[in-house]
Structure formats: structure tokens, C-alpha cells
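[Q] Does anyone have a clean C-alpha cell version of this?
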Amino acid sequence: MGLSIDKIRIHVPEQVLLNTTLSKEFNVSEAEILKRTGIEKRYLSAENETASDLAFIAAKKLLADNDISQKIDFLIFCSDCFDYVAPATSCILQDRLKLPQSTGCIDLPYGCSGFVYGLGIANGLLHSGMAKTILFLTCDTSTKTLHPNNFEQRSLFSDGAAAILLSKNEKTPPNDFIFGTDGSGACDLYIEGSAFRAPLDKNFKREKFLPNGEMVMNGANIFSFALKTVPKLVNDTLEKCGLKFDEIDLFIFHQANGFILETLRRKMNIPPEKFYCNIKDYGNTVASTIPIALYGAEQEKVLKKGMKVLVAGFGVGNSWAATVINY
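[A] Here you go.
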């Protein structure tokens, strides 16, 4: 039996950052911004709004649609933007959501590949019998770590949350996963001044006005990493799942950058109608990009019951992960 994604709900902040604003600030045309990123719209969390706040609202939407809050026996919260170093933010969310005290809780400190990693953990919990119904929440508020003068990062990153209800599906085959890591590239994307190795100091806060630390990104290295890693990841996943390329109905990758996604699509000869992308309307929401894309594909009737969907995450770490979901 396989893994079932029963419901997905999403939530984004109220404040929107359009290309019009970036164009005026950086003297770059709106058309050029769209060409470089594939993005028209991003969402910015409010000053006192945390990742757990956004995830909480997404979860409330999901639980309102399904009167199952008392059936949740495990909560996974995937984020790079936790409330505290300790305690686990998932424990705080358990209380806010009024889930049973028998609910197991775990924080997953992952970004771009975190959704698929979380699916893998959930799959193990479900099939070991340790859980029957899992609430999987993803959210990052990366925009709080972007320097106001950094055009590249501000044109890409966005804040958003997703809530996913997971259980076992008796009618589908078991899920196989591919995971991988190359930690030598970990500092191609990291948050400076954010934890114990390089803690935030008063000068940093005063000079940069970034109390949560500053994102540092080597875009060229990340681009090269994606082009090298993702095609092999897709092929290895198909082989492990015993599937042929043509048997996949839909490909959904981490929505990192529109240019990267289109380059990967062409490199792997994926037909446009089988390659779903909604980065234009949401930006790069890090851990939430794939579930937000799954939700969008469902709403647009692109994703339907009975489809095989290959989902692939890649990025922070450097890490990567993929699986095939039987809808």
C-alpha cells in the first residue's frame, strides 16, 4: 500500500511584492525581471508574523474542511524559520491547533527538498504503524532574511505555507524514494548570523537591519548544482519505482526559479503539458513550493485522480529528494 495525500490547503500573507515595485527600486524593466525569474508576484510576511503563524492558518483551513483534528496522531513541521532554537515549533503548533496530547511532533529543518523528505518520514511512520493520520505543515518566511538592496534574492523569494493531510492508501503500490546530499555545497545558500556557529551580534543587527540573519546565496553554483543533479534524480527515481518516463502523467519540481525550471524541462525533454509550474503567481516559497504547486494543479484540474506525479525537490544543503505519488 502507498502514501495518500488526502487534502492540501495553502495560505499566503496579505502583502504582495510585484515586479512593478522592484522595477522602480532597481531600475530594471518588469519584462527583464519576469525573464530572469519567471515570477510576477511574491508574498511578504508581516513584521511580527512567523512561519508558524502562516502554517497555523493553513492548518486551520484544512481542519475546517475535515473534522479530523482529534484523529491526528503525528505532526511534522518543515521549515528553516522556527519560532525558537528550542522548543520544537511543532510542539507549539500542536497546542495552538488543539490536537490530542497523544500527537507525536517533530520539526524538520529543511528547505527546498524538505517537502519530499517530509513525505519520506511520513511514509515510514505510516507503514511502520507508528501513525495512521499525519498533519504535515510547511512554511518559510525567508523574506525576513533578505537585504533590501539584494535584487537577485528579493526578485525570487516569497513567503507561504501549506498543510497536507497524509494517510495510507490501500489501493496504490508502495512509494519508493531517492534521497541525496552533497554537503560540500551547503554554504552556497545559508543564513549568516542565525545560530551558534555564527551568532548574530549587535553590529550586524545595527548595520544590516536584519535581526533574523541575512541570506547568502551563490546563484551560479546553485544553478549548476540543479542542472547536474535533477536529471539524474528523475532517472534514478523512475528506475527505483519501476516506471518508464512516459508513464508519468505530471512532473512537479521545486519551484526555485522560472529560468532553471524551463532549462530543466528542455534538458529532460518533458512535454510542457506534463510539466506544472506556478512560480509566476507565488515566487519561491522554499519548503512550500511543491505542495503549493500540487494545490494549484488540483484547482486548475491539471492534476486528477489516478495520475502518477513525480515530485522532485533540490536545493539547501545541498540536498535532493524525489518520489512518485499515485493520486
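[Q] Thanks! Anything notable?
[A] The chain is about 35% helix and 25% strand.
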